[in-house]
Amino acid sequence: MTTESVLPPLDPFAGIPDRRYEVRASELLKPGNAGLMRWRRQATNAPIVYVEDAYITGTLDLRAADLKYLFRFERCRFEQPPDVREASLLGLVFRKCWLPGLKARNMRSRNDVRLIRSVVQVDGDRREIEETTVQRGDDRERGMPNAAVNLTDAVIEGSLVLTRTVIAHPHGKAIHADRLVLAGALLAYRMVANGEVRLPGLRTGGNVNFSGATLNNPDGFALNGNGLHIGGSLLCEVDNYGPPSQRKRFSATGIMYLPSATVDSDISLREAKLTVSQHGPIAVDAWKSNDPYIDPRPALVADRMRVDGNVELSDGLQALGTLRMVNARVGGSLRLAGAEIRVERGKTVPYYDRALHLDGTEIGGDIEATSLRVPTGQLRLADVTVGGNFLAWNSMFRHPGRDVFSARRSKIAGNFQLTDATIHGTLRLQGVDVGGSINLAGTRLTDPGRRATSSYSLDVRTGRVGRDLTLRDNNGRPFVAEGGVNLDGAQVARRVDLRGSQLGSLPPFGVALDAGDVASDEFILTPSSPPTGRIVLRRAHCGTLSDNEQFWAASDGIELEDFRYDALKKGIPLDDDKALDARIELLRSAMRGYRPGPYDQLAHMLRAAGNEEHASTVALRKQQFRYEALARGFKFFGPGVRLWSWLQRSMVGYGYRPVRALGWLLTLLVLGSLWFGLGSDDCIYDQSGRFMRNGPRCVVNQQDTGLQWNPVIYTADLLVPIVDFGNKSRWYMHGPDNWVAAGFTASGWILATTVAAGVSRMLRREN
């Protein structure tokens, strides 16, 4: 009902209206036909007070009133803020109204409270609305908030609807609703709030929906929901009502502050835009601290939050400021797919430039971060527990020169998949525990962080992987680690795969791959190009080793002390001596010096495979390289060491070729037999007459007339030391024969000594 039926509808947003629309609030509240009864709809007995197209002057004062009416104002303009504090009403509706404020502390409504397509605008020059505790030395009531809409401690047995309403306060809060209790939902589609929306302790039975809303409080909290409890979902996403061109995304300029919040269903900020100034003073004085784990300019703060469903920070979400959820609990999944998060890059320590901060958070489902973009800032996930997978293929994380992704000691029940990603900075997974696989196929890691003790692009030290660690190429895109990979002490159940990878290193450390103490069923060490730097495999162990020449050609060599492998994936055939020689040369060139362990390991592996001949060849070559190293160390005695090495190698193969000794023995025996058998002696009789001819040779003692000359037995007696066959001291030799006999005796001693040395060494090694 209007004041005059002939008047056109009132536009309450066009300023002070014509006085013909004026209705005094005092007249409205008069009892009887001149007051409330006049505005009731008389067609039915419904207790509705319906006022439309009116300019209500004075104060609509319903404070502490107990009225069984639903008040509905449509196209009305209020001169003073309506006052319904401590009132008990059936409901309260403002539709297309203009209000200078709304005082509704401790109000109780048995139905909805609605401000639809309305404007609540506090005049900056008028301060009557202000109820503040901030100022001192005045007559204002302490404990009273300064807000355009004040719903503190109100109880609404229906829903609070703020759809398409504009609420603005130039020097206070837009909404103050501490401990507001709603039996239904809070619906604020496309609401615009200039000032803080304060909802700590809010309790709702249904959703809180800010889809399409705009919250603007750049110097503080855009939304303060400390400790709120939502019986449904918190929705801050796109409002798709109307044609596609009119869809509107949620945006917040200021901090989304939700610590200790409890949400019984989901939180959705899909396509939301969150902005916090990255310059100027810190927004909250309490955060002015030297604590390095504080995030002073966060776009979202949700520490200790409890969510039974999913948290959606995805599908085009844009955040300028940290997304912080420390020690939170998410029953479902955390989705960051398609989001973009950026922060201002810190210039001094501590840097305070974390883009995503999830320390200590427990997530029951997955973390889905596919196509996530972080142009600047760190993603920190220390001590996070994930019940599902971490999925982040096609992502881009950029924080050059620092740790761009840090997930120390995190536990992931499923897979950690970061394939085809572009990462500028260090990916730090130190101490991570992954039940499935870590898959970084096709990922490029450049611009790693530099520290005083180490510098790596990927750090998985002491990590535990239930299946595979995959650092390989993917569809023609190689895995690249510009600063190298650190796997020191990692435990991988199945496979460490570096097929087609490209490994580099940075000075002064120069380590392209540190796989010391790594244990796995299989190593696939087949990079596409020689690693630039040093490879460390100390005390590593695998069941099967697959490698290539590029791996062994690492620019600064390979450390192989106590590196153990049980078999080669591509074995060495029994008849392929060239393959064995090639592998020995790979070992020798990679180590840049003599190390016995790698040769022993190769020999042990070949012997276990039944390839005893090749195992002996490896052991022989090891001894050869050992003497070469000794000769280089003993400068003066070097030639003697080389000669002794040559004698052992040529005669008995350092004990691994005993047949060579028999060959030498037979050769010398033939040569000696020919020399002494083809020659003859002219006996030279002295005065004693002790020489006499006995066949072609002269005996020393004339009494040895029964001794027959046999050049073969004589030569054997010369060659075999210690044992005497009764020939070498009984025949007289002179001239060249004497020298030849002495040479055969010396050769016998040398041969016997080298055989004894080689055999004893082999026996000690086998024992």
Automatic annotation (TrEMBL):
Transmembrane portions of the chain: 659-678, 739-759
UniProt keyword annotations, A-Z: Membrane, Transmembrane, Transmembrane helix
Q: This protein is called what?
A: Oxidoreductase
Taxonomic lineage of this organism?
Bacteria, Bacillati, Actinomycetota, Actinomycetes, Pseudonocardiales
